[in-house]
């Protein structure tokens, strides 16, 4: 049985964690693979600044550092920022999949230009960073926000009647005004809106979390992982120091 660790980028209780696990319902992977969802211990309140990005990288690195030793065959990161992905790739030999870059690359197999549909504009820096790293600015038709305040714990629960139509309206503007022929959901926290939008939009819309699960499954079966040329191993892995940081953050 293949095992995949999904790192959730915020500390949370079991009820809110179940809302993250619900992303598995959107993809059928069959037997022979299972997914464990693990919240981080170190995290910012939200991902709205460079300071937050540093905390996110450290928190996700700490959460996934022992994944290979614990018997996991791959790691998925449950945030479009791809926080900690490069750091984890440097210390793990198993595949580490981030939804940000993989959603953008998949979009280009489905169309010529994509738009990223976000809930609020303060996430913009997360997308521009990945677009610059991939050199795909010219393939991004737009970064559009629906002007909605996100909740990284309860997600969209109880707000469907307000949020779903607002996201649809913003997505249609991406298509009709910006020229997008593929839409990418700008956050895994938006996954509950995917089915609603997919039924109504005239172009494909990528649900980033389930995409990473499918890619992890494919990487395991194809025996593929990241290149050590691009992700060299550190001289020394800071296992103990990161564990101590995690304990302090968790109040242990």
From TrEMBL:
Give the matching InterPro entries. Asp/Glu/hydantoin_racemase, Asp/Glu_race, Hydantoin_racemase-like, Iso_Racemase_Enz_sf
Identify the domain of life. Answer: Bacteria
**One Pfam annotation, family name?**
Asp_Glu_race
PANTHER family noted in UniProt? PROTEIN DCG1
Instruction: State the similarity comment.
Output: Belongs to the HyuE racemase family.
Q: This protein is called what?
A: Aspartate/glutamate racemase family protein
């Amino acid at each position: 049985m293949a095992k995949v660790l999904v790192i959730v980028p915020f500390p949370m209780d079991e009820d809110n964690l179940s809302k993250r696990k619900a992303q598995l319902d959107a993809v059928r992977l069959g037997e022979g693979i299972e997914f464990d969802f693990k919240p981080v211990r170190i995290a910012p309140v939200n991902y709205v600044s460079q300071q937050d990005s540093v905390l996110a990288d450290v928190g996700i690195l700490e959460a996934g550092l022992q994944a290979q030793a614990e018997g996991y065959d791959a790691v998925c990161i449950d945030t479009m920022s791809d926080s900690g992905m490069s750091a984890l790739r440097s210390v793990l030999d198993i595949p580490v999949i981030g939804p940000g870059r993989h959603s953008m690359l998949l979009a280009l197999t489905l169309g010529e230009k994509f738009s990223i549909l976000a809930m609020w504009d303060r996430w913009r820096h997360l997308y521009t960073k990945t677009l610059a790293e991939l050199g795909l600015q010219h393939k991004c038709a737009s970064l559009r926000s629906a002007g909605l305040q996100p909740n990284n714990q309860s997600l969209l629960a109880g707000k469907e009647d307000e949020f779903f139509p607002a996201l649809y309206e913003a997505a249609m503007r991406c298509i009709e005004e910006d020229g997008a022929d593929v839409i990418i959901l700008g956050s895994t926290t938006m996954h509950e809106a995917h089915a609603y939008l997919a039924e109504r939009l005239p172009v494909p819309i990528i649900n980033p979390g389930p995409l990473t699960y499918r890619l992890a499954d494919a990487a395991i079966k194809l025996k593929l992982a990241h290149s050590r040329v691009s992700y060299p191993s550190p001289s020394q892995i800071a296992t103990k120091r990161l564990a101590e940081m995690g304990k302090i953050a968790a109040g242990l």
